[in-house]
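Could you join me in thinking about how sequence relates to backbone shape in a protein? We need material for that, and I hope you will provide a protein of your own picking. Label the sequence line and the structure token line clearly, so we can match residues to local backbone shapes. Would you write everything just below, so we can both look at the same thing?
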Amino acid sequence: GGENIFLKGVAHRFRAELLRMQSGPARKVADAIGESVQWLEQSGSQAELSKSRLLMARHYLALGQEEKAKELVLIARDALASLNEALVPDDLRALVKDRPAGETLLKEILKLGQEVVTIRDNKDLVHHIISTVNRIAGAERGAIFLYQENSGAPGLVLRASKNLTVDQIEHPDFASSMKMIEEVARAGKGRILGMSSKRTSDSAGVIRSRICVPMILHDKTVGVLYHDNRLLSSAFKESDLELLSYFAALAAFALDNARAYDEVNRLNIKLSEENLYYKEQHLQNLHFEDIVGESPAIKRVLAQVNQVTGTDATVMIIGETGVGKELVARATHRHSPRCDKPFIRVHCSALPETLIPSELFGHEKGAFTGATRQRIGRFELADGGTLFLDEIGDLSLEIQVRLLRVLQTREFERVGGSETLKSDFRLIVATNRDLEKEVKAGRFRTDLYYRLAVFPIYVPPLRERRDDIPLLAYYFLGIYAKKMGKNLTKIPNSEMDKLLTYHWPGNVRELENVIERGTILSNGPFFRVPELGAELPEASPEVHAVTLIENERKHILWALEKTGWKVRGKGGAAELLGLPASTLAFRMKKAGIERPKKLADR
């Protein structure tokens, strides 16, 4: 009724294969295959029926009944001709002598010749050659053995194989084949070996047919091409030696070509890496005038400078006081297309807040008390060149708004004027502050920060580039010894050790001051390091080191206490500190200083 005869046929074939693997009785194997053939004939599935017939052919071959096996392979081949003749295994195809001949063989050879020159992967190449020879020669298994190169113990090693594993090669059953392979390699001449068709119950792993030919390249044997068949005792003929010799020569040539391609590819990669290395070295060894150093840290800075010089991008230079941020800014300008135009510097923290608008934008005559003549501002002076705003983090929020407007439009008016001016300048800024923290604290505008931080360059402190200390020391020594007319050419190792171990809170600027002072104090040919840190007042043991901002805060509080918290006017803290009242108010806000509640009503 509801039987699926197709599945029954396939199931019986699987049962037969399982019995064969378990070395079951030959009669039971034959019965299972017969049942499979019977059900599949009824199902009409030619592909599965042919598989069962081919399995029966293998069974007949195992029993030494070659004619019966041949008959079944012919039936299966004819049935598969309209479907896919490649389903007939190579080793069984040899049984019916279905090898390409004449024009067909020539086509196979030409096809392989075209394919091997296009395959660049060595592994794919050798497998393709072995598979093709298996198909044409009717072999079951195949392998390429090559002589080891650059080895202390030269010998043949398995390079690639099809249906043949390393374990099988090392098995005693393969010993006679290995002996044949070695003899062919030594003699440089191909051989065929067969054996009697008589079979025994334990002969399943016995190799019945073997063929092996040398692979010769430039009159030198480089390896062998080996194929065998465990089913047929006469799978190969003498005429196959000439055919396989051609394929062996083709394989040797193709492998050599692939090796050459790999070597060329390797050399190209190496050359590319060397070019990149030399390019990086060139960038790192670029000399930007007064920037001295060969440490990885300073080379990264120079490489970044080189990257940005050809652009008009805004550069933000970040680093501690004294690291040489202005030198980096000047180097960026000098190597840019604007190098023949002005480099205008504005030290934002050195200007009183009331004077900053006048300095940046300029002013008209009579714009305010003391404005006795027109003044050209820094934006206007920098037209066509570079404007460098040092310590940008010290600008008040009011000035930040005005600066942002100029950056957006490149337009501005002089203080007290109505004419709109334009300036084409390249902006470089520098700061020793963490502007991201300043933004979060509300002391720096977010929109201005993102306009400025287009291309940040971090200049490391001297303690992070100690390798450069000897270079810098001799550089400054050369300058000041010449200036003072002294013959100082050597810094003794003991003196250099002092420079190397010092922590340099003032960075390169402090090192330059030390060398200048030491040049003044040193007599004779040897430089002596003066007392390090002598220019700074020594703190009492109980006093902890504080930052510049903390010192400023304490100083402002001292002035406010002394003046009774009077900020403006005569006798006020601003007058005592020598600052405009607006600047003091800004710095009080930045330092978080508020008038005590008990004085709030004054």
